[in-house]
Design brief:
Blueprint (H helix, E strand, L loop, with lengths): L1 H22 L29 H11 L17 H13 L4 E6 L4 H14 L9 H9 L5 E2 L10 E4 L11 H8 L27
Antiparallel strand pairs: 1-3, 2-3
């Protein structure tokens, strides 16, 4: 009984102290949450109107004959790796804004890094992606492109931008499914030219 009375007296004292603080205008503000509990999570959006697996296989068959690096179409340890890289690149391209002309300010290697980062952010495998897979995915979509030509000082250029631009066409890949390679966009002229490769002179001494 004595313990209960003591507990009640303690609560009464605390209440009286709080009332006195309120009257004096010194009410304590509610504590802020610890800084490590506040997290900013980016919103990961993604299109859902992509080809089915069967349609993706048909797209791959339609463009792989145009591969700029045919040796990359095979993998001695994993036969399906080139196709997986193609599907990963195509998935990323479907969510990247387009430009009407190739973007000469951005190198192909940069777009590969952006693509890998985009895939990793969505817990997807990015190690299957290579330059060949990315170019084939470009050919299977509606991205403007300029092929590389070292003799003329031209490097690969893609009509992509990270911000702004226009969305991917929802019909381009369907046209390639029905029309095959003939429905692939023709290459564009380059936005810039680098120094062309000089021919190698061979001097024979004898």
């Amino acid at each position: 009984m004595t313990d209960r009375i003591a507990a009640l007296e303690t609560k009464i004292a605390e209440a009286q102290a709080e009332i006195a603080a309120l009257k004096a205008g010194k009410a304590a503000s509610p504590p802020l949450p610890p800084r490590d509990e506040v997290r900013i999570v980016p919103l990961l959006t993604e299109r859902s109107d992509l080809p089915t697996l069967r349609e993706m296989e048909k797209l791959y068959s339609a463009v792989k004959a145009l591969s700029p690096w045919p040796s990359a179409l095979t993998d001695r340890f994993d036969d399906s790796r080139p196709f997986r890289g193609f599907t990963s690149a195509f998935r990323w391209l479907a969510n990247v804004p387009r430009t009407d002309r190739p973007n000469g300010k951005v190198a192909l290697s940069y777009w590969m890094d952006v693509c890998r980062g985009w895939l990793r952010a969505r817990n997807s495998v990015a190690s299957d992606l290579d330059a060949n897979a990315l170019i084939l995915a470009v050919l299977a979509s509606d991205v403007a492109y300029c092929p590389a030509n070292p003799q003329l000082g031209v490097v690969w250029e893609l009509g992509l931008v990270e911000f702004g631009g226009k969305p991917a066409s929802p019909d381009a890949w369907r046209r390639i499914l029905t029309g095959g390679a003939s429905a692939i966009l023709p290459p564009s002229s380059p936005a810039r030219r680098m120094a062309p490769l000089s021919p190698v002179r061979v001097v024979v001494c004898g």
